[in-house]
User: Fold this.
Amino acid sequence: MNPRLDQLHPYPFQKLRELFAGVTPNPELAPINLSIGEPKHVTPQFIKDALVAGLDGLAHYPITQGTEALRMAIAAWVRRRYGVTLDPASEVLPVNGSREALFAFAQAAVDATRHGRRTVISPNPFYQIYEGAALLAGARPFFLNTLPENGFRMDWSRVPEDLWESVSLVYVCSPGNPTGKLMTLAEWQTLFALSDRHGFVIAADECYSEIYFREDEPPLGALTAAQRLGRGFANLAVFNSLSKRSNVPGLRSGMVAGDAAVLKQFLLYRTYHGSAMSPAVQAASAAAWNDEAHVVENRRQYAEKFAAVMPLLQDVLTFDAPDAAFYLWARVPGGDDAAFARGLYEKRHVTVLPGSYLARDAAGSNPGKGFVRIALVDHLDACVEAATRIAAFVREST
Assistant:
């Protein structure tokens, strides 16, 4: 077997199961799971209808590039959302969810033959797919800590200058998982300048881009930033997903957009990888990308939950309101995030994710230590009940 598999760390939720082993939660309380970023809102009926209507497509092999109708729907959404015009034939590619594509992208983008370009940079804490993708592509992950003192942002000046020439790929996540922070135009300008100087590819994970709190202030995206800065899309690939936007995590549907030359090579890789999307899923996906009304309603529900939950927790946990996404990244009393999560599960039957499970030791510290990630994915009543239980747990423990 591939010896690189031995380098992979256990997934956070496997570690969480091990943490809870032998623990019997309070049987008088119904379980509430806020550990995993899986939307619990209802899938819109029109998406289900489009999926069923597309079932005749199962009689045909799909092409990896996807149908013209789907690529045009994605390009139209990008134009509405970001004010950017893309060529549906060369600058858009449907994928089987952003997780699958973010992993596969490293296998195509890491250039270990060119001056030893074996480094992949990612934020820390991070989505663990970035690390696994780098390791299995034969690269060395470099974790750039996002810390409270710099607003949980990626500080590019903390990357050693002599490392840049070994970098093939940089992962960024905006809105960020788990912090909910956004990259500013100035931060994009710095990263683009570094990419232009050193020749690495940028993978911009934007799967939380449609969960924000003011309809007149959508998060800045990489494509918009590139256009505003007048640099074009060179060495830029943007990843997005319908899972969070449209409440269809089981559909496994997303998209990649950006540099036509990069996407051409990624398409070649995917053709061999066997990554074509089911025709029925393509039909449902096109319907989802073409509609915004359900996304506005989705945002309203998340905003309602944050407005209800944050006041209940502000006196017992330390956190900033996120810029976007559906996570609260909260510092816990005592600083032991794993013990906090275990105690909360045992005493109050609420599951949250220890922040240290989402990070690696780097530059002398684990930047997730002392934090928990609370995913406000359940319905309003469940989230309010969970927050009430968390507050009670903290008060009885201190």
